[in-house]
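User: Hi! I'm working on a homework problem where we have to compare a predicted structure to a textbook description. Could you give me the structure for the chain below?
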Amino acid sequence: MLSLLSFQAHIENYRRKKYYALSLSILGGILMALGWYFPFSPLLFVGLIPMMELIEFYFDKNEKQKADTTTTKKKKYFTRLCFFIWIYFIVWNVGVYWWLWNALSVGVIGVFLLNAFLQLLPIIFYVFTRRFSVGFINYLSLVSCWLFFEYVHLNWVLSYPWMNLGNALGEVPMWAQWYEYTGALGGSIWILLANILGHHVFIKQDIKVGAYLVWILVPIGISYGIYASYNDEEMKNLDSVEMAVLQPNLDCYNEKFSRNPKTGEPATNHISFKDQIQRYIDLAKSVMTDSTKYIVLPETAFHQNSTEYNYTSQPDLEPIFDFCRENNLILIAGADTYKFYTESDTIPKTARQSNGGSYYDMYNAAVQFAPFVKDSISFYHKSKLVIGAETNPIKMILPNQSASLLFVDIMGTLGTQDYRGVFTSPNSKAKVAPAICWEAVYGEFCTEYAQNGANVIVVPTNEGWWGNTPAPRQLWALSALRAIETRRSVARAANTGISGFIDQTGKDISRSNYGEQTALKYKVKLNNEITFYTLHGDYLGRLAGFLAVFFFISAFVRKLRQ
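Assistant: Happy to help. Predicted structure tokens:
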């Protein structure tokens, strides 16, 4: 009892310090950022406590001065609270994806500031609802507001869900096996509630540490139990297919393209497209066996902007198509393609107009070439586009010229498709989900492939834009979460980055190193099981949305009655 009083007196004394709020902002942001990196993952369970203390500090200050606090002073306190929580989010954002600087340079500052501001919004909503509720309802409101924000951030035009709490567990997939039931939003709830308990344990000291530890350790124990249920015998009974993933290690800025995409200047060490195709063939030869059925190439491996009409007649691609014909191989590759529309077609908003007046769409596509049945060609168009690089959402609101001034517009808006296409072939039991790079960040989105019959996920990607930074590792970790959620094996082919294979439990089977020119092969398991999460998607986010709106309306009505 004496130690409790002593600790609380110490906290109260520290609260009087001039830089108390700022120190909480910086400390909390650093703790949360570190939680994104193994072996610091346990910091996720304490990293939100400084932010919660900031909110508690604000409400305590308001309560103590309630009688003589003017409206102006209340607004000042609230503004200060928002500012310091914004600083907290900025530090957290910078710590997690600082590597974006390598691709955007100074433009990344805008990303840090904007995403931190968006993260601030659910906290503002929570602070408003908290004024008119107490106890357990307060915390339910906090969880609902935050979870609904994450759900919205997965689905709206400015979608950037990189910082969703549940994504951080990709570094420790053995802790997240229950994602097959909840998806990554279930991990967000776990982390949020752990921090709420932690605030009561370490700051308020009105809950025993045992309850806090139980809340953290029991889900981990359940997760290991689920993992153990996927025993080797069950895995052996699944059909399999041998795939080879190729990592050509072409520098994005100075080798792959004729011009540096960042500066527009001629590339210093450009490798001709013909030689790039030959590198793909040589890598495939180095690893393939008589059992190899698929070779998988990275995102934009075929970057010469070819029409999808009569695609197998492209002379630049003839060598690799011939190689596949000779070896009975199915080829899956990333490609830049385009398609013209006829007068009878419905012209989508993403279409561009040529000098001749006709309309066409450009795509970041995946192409499957299967030489068994009249050189069968299938296309899938990437449909979760990278904001700025592949889509300018502001064009939906403003004219093209104004939108480009307000928002980075590197390639214009690419075409997409409404359904998650699955690659099939009569000569293979594999039904392949071609989740192109950024698409693998989205859990519910990837379940649509499984709903359409996919039994394995292939991720063509290009991680060379960010250099040898945590970016490739973080993208790999997100692919591990998609494997768990859908219980599908994942094959990743990176231009350079991390290529390799992940089994349906999220465990690494084999992986390359960054900057390595290599090819890997593995007999991936084909699983047709439909998980609970595959069926129901982000139901937790939708439920949170209902609760958040309910709490907000309830608080608004109570405010009017006052």
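For your comparison, note the following. The longest strand covers residues 359-370. The radius of gyration is 26 Å. Good luck with the assignment!
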